[in-house]
Design brief:
- There is one protein chain.
- The chain is α+β, with helices and mostly antiparallel strands and about 170 residues long.
- It contains six helices and four strands.
- It has a four-stranded antiparallel β-sheet with strand order 1-2-4-3, sandwiched between helices.
Amino acid sequence: MSNETIQNIKERRSVRKYIDKKIPEETLKEIIDCARLAPTGNNRQAWSFLVITDDEIKNKIASYARYGRFIEEAGACIAVFVNQDKATTPMQDAAAATENIMIAAKSHDLGTCWVNSYQKEHSPKIKELVNCPQEMELMTLMSVGYYDENDVSMPAKKFLSEVMVWDKF
């Protein structure tokens, strides 16, 4: 593949096991810079990205999120929040930003795993833990970290011919 972006998309996978290696602050800033450039409905950009590197906070988040226990091992956790009063398409906005985070992280050889957090059981506890403003809604949690490439497998994906149709169904 000659296009690095396409290659990163095709090689990206969910990573739930991380090695103990600190992520440089500049790398995390670049990842969030890519997240903020995602499209939003009516260009509202009604989001905030909370980058959590503190081990104590990550451990608490991991204990609250039933399907996010691996967050405690990651170098960082990125929480995507959206102001639902200002956003016209909050779920779509958060999903687009979350996808940008995954692709940007992959370009830095970092693994990620998305934890849906929209109105989940763990969300109120995490919002309280991080002093989230009342008007913001937790949409996604994203573990980010270095991983052992030999310890990650690619789950089977459907073939293109199984999901693509032309002109009409």
